Amino acid sequence: MNKASDPEREYPRPIVTVDVVLMTLLDDVLCVALTSRRSEPWKGHLALPGGYVHVNEDLSLDDAARRVLEDKAGVRIAYLEQLYTLSGPSRDPRGWSVSVSYCALVPAEEIRASLKADVSMVPVSKLSALPFDHRRIVDVAVTRVQNKASYSSLPAFLLPETFTLAELQHVYERVLDARLDRVSFRRKIEDQGFVEPVKGEFRKGAQRPAQLYRLRKHVLSSFDRAFATG
Amino acid sequence: MNKASDPEREYPRPIVTVDVVLMTLLDDVLCVALTSRRSEPWKGHLALPGGYVHVNEDLSLDDAARRVLEDKAGVRIAYLEQLYTLSGPSRDPRGWSVSVSYCALVPAEEIRASLKADVSMVPVSKLSALPFDHRRIVDVAVTRVQNKASYSSLPAFLLPETFTLAELQHVYERVLDARLDRVSFRRKIEDQGFVEPVKGEFRKGAQRPAQLYRLRKHVLSSFDRAFATG
DNA sequence: TTAATAGTGTCTCTAAGACAGTATCCG
DNA sequence: CGGATACTGTCTTAGAGACACTATTAA
What domain range includes position B35? Predict the structure, then answer.
């Protein structure tokens, strides 16, 4: 019945690309990096940074994603996570294709310091249509980030090395798009213990200085319980 | 610096396969379907059902996963979810390969009724080494299922169309490998409202009959709050 | 009636939210 | 000192666990 199930036969191979949703918080707004495509299809249009897997160079898809980021953005990546793999015969005019999508987070300072000229940061709320199914990929990325933010240390990767608890709470609130209780936030963050105070270091301003904290480990930590849904 | 970044050049394409972790609860034990490989590499060894993407036949990777399941198992799939995409130059001796892994859940009754002869169900706790990186894929699948079980209706897909709340609690306990409080469980399940009683239908036994329930929608529903970790 | 499982009422306890208080800086 | 922000103590409240109770069947 199923002639194609002959296990010895080799099949024509699909195209394999990686596409990266590079996100940061610029002026309190969650933004995505878009590049102007240098080749067909969609040459000249803004799209997610991405490209072919280089089988003679990349040791993994993660590797390919990092290479793409290095090439397009040249930024220190605080966090990289595989998102989802999209596929089909018609999503790319070059033929049956597989796109392994990634989500990357960087602190705003990195973006400001070292972004290439042909990359622009666009607020996720102001995204118009994108080539291929890149719009869907961005939606998956935003949903994933918001989801993980509710029960993990993920938003901390949008901040520099050291930060105050007020700054940390602010990033959580921006990513989750929700208000968090100040007391509960401190309690929870301190209980979970994924940050530690940097002894003797304070953020100084016009008011009382605030204790600076840093991540204990530079990996994602999950909480015992999620933030309330509000 | 990066000679390989020429955007016009086509690159050699990796092999693309799908591998499926088909799981069910057989006699209260979480089991995974393994098939004896019909071709090299690892011919004759037990491995996850999987195969090449057929670009002239499959409309998506999900499609390919369903085809593989149809071919190897011939079962009605209650739940199918993409897991993770593994990759690398050496995970498959045939060359640089990409494996898109899937997790599928089926009720035990389906398995008992219609499993093919060369497929065996093995308890996840008794898995030995598997070819390729299939062991890692199984680990990802089990972790994902346990994770989702703690905050969604996922375990319900391991049950037949109708079930009692006691049966539902039992599958949650088996999947999570934890005891759940009976009162809290009923409260939570009823509050979340993803199941509805089938009016007038009862499971009859040697004792008081139990109300039968069914899923309201045949899609995964997430809870407001997760089951406690304790 | 008894054994067994289905289902409910309610107390306790934990953790999140609310709110008011104290602490420490700048000017 | 006042204004502003950092940080803390504690009351209230929502939801999970514990436990005792009632309900309904077969034998």
Answer: 11-149
